[in-house]
Specification:
This protein is α+β, with helices and mostly antiparallel strands. The protein has helices spanning 2-23, 30-33, 36-52, 120-127, and strands at 57-66, 69-79, 93-105, 108-111, 116-118.
Length: 130
């Protein structure tokens, strides 16, 4: 029973990442849900994405957890209104999917930014870059 509670807590922490940090653009939450190094990375990266896609939104499609890891399948939508990876704003909308795995310790995300996969080729096609 205790393990199940821990798994549910881990899922709740990761859900806060997508809902509060990304969808609500509340970077203060980073200090609550990440270890220190990871929090600083997210605080630097999120504003860059938000400048390129001001209406950026992540929809959690599925979330599966086991032990200290949480896997999230997502759909990312947004409108390209600022430079992104050297590509000038196109005004085009994007809709791509991705999957992230996060590892947690003591109710904080300690790993995960290296464990994400998103359909970058599809995004580039939608932006007209390829």
């Amino acid at each position: 029973m205790r393990e199940m509670m821990s798994i549910e807590k881990n899922k709740a922490v990761v859900r806060r990442l997508w809902e509060e940090v990304w969808n609500q653009n509340n970077l203060n939450v980073c200090d609550e849900i990440f270890d220190n190094e990871y929090a600083e990375h997210e605080k630097r990266f999120a504003p860059k994405m938000r400048m390129a896609f001001p209406d950026l939104h992540f929809t959690v499609e599925d979330m599966i957890a086991e032990d200290h890891k949480v896997v999230t399948r997502l759909t990312l939508t947004g409108t390209h209104q600022g430079e992104f990876m050297g590509i000038a704003a196109t005004g085009k909308s994007i809709k791509v999917t991705g999957t992230w795995i996060h590892r947690l310790s003591d109710n904080r995300i300690v790993e995960g930014r290296e464990w994400g996969e998103w359909d970058a080729l599809e995004m580039m096609k939608q932006l007209g870059a390829v």
